[in-house]
Amino acid sequence: MMSYDFGPRHPLKPIRLARTVTLLKSLVSDVEFIDPGFATDQDILTAHSEEYLDFVRTVGDGAASKEDLFRFGFGSVDTPPFSGIYEASLGYCGGAVQAAQQLNAGAQLAFNISGGLHHAQGEWASGFCVFNDPAISLALMKKKFKKLLYVDIDLHHGDGVQAIFQDDPDVVTLSIHESGKTLYPGTGFVEETGAGGTVVNLPMEAHTTGDVWLWAFAEVFPLVIDSFQPQAIVLQMGCDAHFNDPLGHLRVSVQEWMSAVRIVKETGLPILACGGGGYELSNVPRMWAGAVMTLSGLEVPADAPKEIPSEWGVDKLFDPEPLERGHGLGYAQEVVSFWQTKLS
After folding, report:
1. pLDDT tens for residues 195-207?
2. Does domain 15-343 have CATH number 3.40.800.20?
3. List of residues 6+ apart from 18 with CB closer than 8 A
4. Are 192 and 218 in contact (CB under 8 A)?
């Protein structure tokens, strides 16, 4: 998983995962980390085409043509190929498989913190994502659960998961994100409703503050639960909606983001939680560690343990209370009203 690395100048840095693990070990004395092994090609084929899988298997050797690199999504600086990319991708997907198998066997909660790569499409890579591990988890969980809900609180629209399942009446995708008008991938508008209304998007205007973001989520999420009545949830916990993340323009605090995680937990449904975006290294460990503890029913302390290096910038697990409120409320009200009408 740590070898899934596009290089030192790329914003997706594997060290964020290592620091999360270290912080969790310091916060929770009996936390257990399980090596899930690798996903198999058959696992990958639950969400991706065989032609694409065959290409990823060899793209790291540097022999692919420029035409094929662009065709399969590896021709940009966002998702460049690197040596060992196939094996590294099977690594984080191994977490998706193991977590899904745990829920299928009766567990109420499982984590794949290294995952959450929600932009990968069925036949090409996109947005730092080679294989779509949340989609693989959902596909495997369909063996046990008749109705599934995918919840995405990442800064960016969960376009890959939506595309893979938009024609599946048994999987609803709910994504709250910065509007595609101002941010990659340029999708995720309310008009995208999928087969039978199984796609629910909550686009927020750039500079929307966390109080408005959380209000919109808290208003629509229960409507989706009541309307669809899922039996289990896959939660993508991208933490790049935070106000100081370098890739976006939302203004969400740690505690507001954590409140959304708590709302999902309070359904009492089985949850598979995976990682996602997050590009400010002082945010990711404290937000993921706090989310894991919240979902596990553990109290999140205000301060990180003293053994955590001060240079990590995670000494306080929560932010000061935000001074700005109410930005983006007008458009958020329109979005919420759309879904209140559609889901009532």
Report:
1. 778 999 999 999 9
2. yes
3. 2
4. no
Phi, psi dihedrals of residue 20, rounded to the nearest 5°? -65, -45
Q: Which one-letter amino acid corresponds to residue 284?
A: V
Chain mean pLDDT for the chain? 97
Helix, strand, coil percentages in the chain from 3-state DSSP, rounded to 5:
40, 10, 50
Q: Where are the domains of the chain?
A: 15-343
Which positions are catalytic? 119
Instruction: Return the closest-CA partner of residue 254 out of 308, 202, 300, 305.
Output: 300
Amino acid (one-letter) located at 103: L
What pLDDT sits at residue 195? Answer: 78
Residue 7 to residue 202: CA distance in whole angstroms: 33
Backbone angles phi, psi at 117, to 5 degrees: -85, 80
Distance of alpha carbon 220 from its chain centroid, rounded? Answer: 19
Q: In this model, does residue 218 exceed pLDDT 90?
A: yes
For residue 32, the cross-strand partners are none
Q: Which pTM was predicted? A: 0.98
Q: What is the CA radius of gyration of the chain?
A: 19
Tokens of 80: 């460049």
* Burial of residue 65, with CB atoms counted within 10 A of its CB: 0-12 exposed, 13-18 middle, 19 or more buried: exposed
Cα–Cα dist 25/293, whole Å: 11
Residue 166 has pLDDT above 90, yes or no: yes
